[in-house]
Amino acid sequence: MAIVSIETVRLQVQVRDKQDAIRQAGELLVQGGCVAPAYVSGMLAREQTMSTYLGNGVAIPHGQHENLADVRRTGISVLQIPEGVEWEPGERAYLIIGIAANADEHVGVLANLAEVIEDPDAAEQLARTTDPMLIIERLNRERDDEA
Amino acid sequence: MATSIPAASVDTIVFACEAGIGSSIMGVNALKKKLKQANLNVNVIHKPVRAVPTDAKVVVAHKGLADFARKQAPNAVIISFSQFLNDPVFDKLVQNLKAGADIVEA
């Protein structure tokens, strides 16, 4: 089954700051039945110790080891913030990919995301599109190179 | 504490993670890809930092986990990074492995 679905994707979102973005990405995972609310606190705590900013405007907030019990099923949420939000000094994030996982089902999505991050044009396209299916199809793309 | 190891002695790199949910998976894949592109036959194993084997020779870990990794594997060369993708230390590690140079704690 495809991991990224329309229910947990929000386009043209406005956020106050990075913490607000993490909360909103986490809340989508809660609403989607992927995690217990405590997971969202874990996402905020994780970000304090190690940033999940990956480059080219993409961050992937997720919980910590102690939150694995709060995960009910693998799920991915997407917040598109066309204006961006400062994630690290001098680095703005436009695509916030919230991750809930306690197994390896989502590694294909992460591999697709890695390709997007390596391709500035693709990253910008997803940061600006008004078609959620463009993001969903790009992240769910089937891969034949799984290691 | 080891501060360097000859490249020829490195057959496995342990990539230490916190939860293993997201960032480290991206980092492991990126490092594997760089090693493959350099035609290097070095394994990368992904381990929670609390489960890093005590006899590991080379451990890469986010700077926030490096001290923990050092306690787990006191004889390993610990290489710490601040960005999971595209941190210059990954390129340097691959270059040194390729050149047969010493792998130095960083």
- Broad structural category of chain B: alpha/beta
Fraction of helical residues of chain A: 25-40%
Question: What gross morphology of chain B would you assign?
Answer: globular
> What is the third-level CATH name, the topology of chain A?
Mannitol-specific EII, Chain A
CATH-wise, what's the superfamily of chain B?
Answer: Response regulator
In the CATH hierarchy, the third-tier topology of chain B is known as Rossmann fold
Protein traits:
heterodimer, A: 147 residues, alpha/beta, Mannitol-specific EII, Chain A, 5 helices, 21% strand, globular, B: alpha/beta, four-stranded parallel β-sheet, 3 helices
Give an overview in words.
The complex is a heterodimer of chains A (147) and B (106). Chain A has a single domain, classed as Mannitol-specific EII, Chain A, CATH 3.40.930.10. Chain A has 5 helices and 5 strands. Chain A has helices at 18-31, 38-49, 107-118, 120-128, 132-140, and strands at 9-10, 53-55, 58-59, 75-88, 91-100. Chain A has a 5-stranded mixed β-sheet with strand order 1-4-5-3-2. Chain A is globular, with a radius of gyration of 14 Å. The two termini of chain A are 19 Å apart. Chain B has 106 residues and is of the alpha/beta class. Chain B contains 3 helices and 6 strands. Chain B has helices at 23-37, 66-72, 88-99, and strands at residues 4-6, 12-17, 43-48, 58-62, 77-81, 102-104. Chain B has a 4-stranded parallel β-sheet, with helices on both faces. A two-stranded antiparallel sheet of chain B has the order 1-6. Chain B is globular, with a radius of gyration of 12 Å. The model of chain B has no long low-confidence stretch (mean pLDDT 92). At the A-B interface, strand 2 and helix 3 of A face helix 1 of B.
